[in-house]
Amino acid sequence: MPARTHKVTPAASQEADSLSNAAPETARKASPGQAPVFKYSIGMNKIGVFCGEMKKIFNYAKMLHEDRSIPVLIEGETGSGKEMVAQFIHYGETDAGGLPFVDLNCACISPSLFESELFGYAPGAFTGGLDKGQPGKLDIANNGTIFLDEIADMPLEMQAKLLRVIQEKEYFRVGGLKKIKTNLRIICATNMRLEDRVLEAKFRQDLYYRLNVGRIYIPSLRERRDEIIPLAMLFLKDISAKKGKKFKFISDDAEKLLLNYRWPGNIRQLKNVIERAVFMYDAAALTPEHLDVLIKSDPGAVHAAGDRNTDFKKDGFIKDFSTNRLLDFSLPATGVFPLNDHINSIIKKALALNGYNKTRTAKYLGITRRTLYSYLKNIPGL
After folding, report:
1. Domain housing 352
2. Could you tell me if 142 and 83 are in contact, meaning their C-beta atoms sit under 8 angstroms apart?
3. Are 233 and 285 in contact (CB under 8 A)?
């Protein structure tokens, strides 16, 4: 099923479970000339926080926890910890009194089933339905929280109905005539820029503005480099203990490798890499040999120390690139040069570097948005 329900005790997400129980000894020693790594734990799951930016996010999440009437939009890359923050907004420092936390992935439900999944359906609403009807996720989440992940994939017609729920606190089941009043917190999450979806007429502007009241942007792991080694140590010690392995620390060379990797999968990918290393090997120290999967899976994602040019954007989205990686081709002396293929490759990379924001990508490439869209029409999957 694309949705899960959590009622009495909080079932921590993959990221939340991995970040819990931060022990004092996991704080990383500061390198010469470097400020000590900030660390403290927060929430009932004792989530480890290792940088000031994340502390600010959790302090804001505390405020949102106190007011369930404010809809929340959490933006961030895949694996950056959006569900972890959503659960903290719901549970806060306690257990939310056993109130339900229901999550629904909008990308996993076909448009034809979306309405009945979210709102439920009345008896006799359609052929093949249960005679007594069926409650939807909004019914189950009443008095608690519904977490709508991948909100950018919600069908447009459902967006209008969700806006009504936010504003009027009521809805109808499919085929039903009775208004159902609700008292729940709505948290939405996406790894896309909803602003772009609005410009493309794929997301309602009025719903976007309403969700933007409680907006949270979670920085990528590239923007939280001070957290990489402390998090890796948390994962290493926790997984090693569970698997009965000897790992106790990370070698200097392995630290450099971890710090120079781009982490496109963020915290989730970091945990998976450490878990694979612990499963495959057994030693006191984690070394680069144990992290060979990083280089084998994506050699271009590992940078030399002086080969990285990082430009942090004011709105939180990061552009992290190397010129040598962007233009990774040479002109042949003879034969045919497939210009269009390389144009498509450059545009794909430019989009990724600019957080798939088409306005910034067009500016980055020195072309108009209209010209960019004309190229995108000829690129499969975009």
Report:
1. 327-376
2. no
3. no
